[in-house]
Design a protein that fits this description.
single chain; 89 residues; mainly alpha
Amino acid sequence: MSVDDKTETACRICGYDDGEAVFDEYGVPQYVICPCCYNESGIGDDNVSQVRELRGYWVASGAQWHAPKFRSTDWDLMTQLANIPPEWR
């Protein structure tokens, strides 16, 4: 990936990152449903205030995984949240 590549692989809401693009290099959402917070890229995550509201709701609700089978045994919420691109924190 080049420095100019703007592909996003981390969920803007919860920071889950499996390396697959959720927004392509042009910022176009791939409409991927996050197995962690269940947000769909491109739906409700296109402005910072919405992202923060959704994240706050998810965390306040216990940061539950929608598909727990994808959660690693050493999963840590703060480590995952650190994956969120700075402009979406």
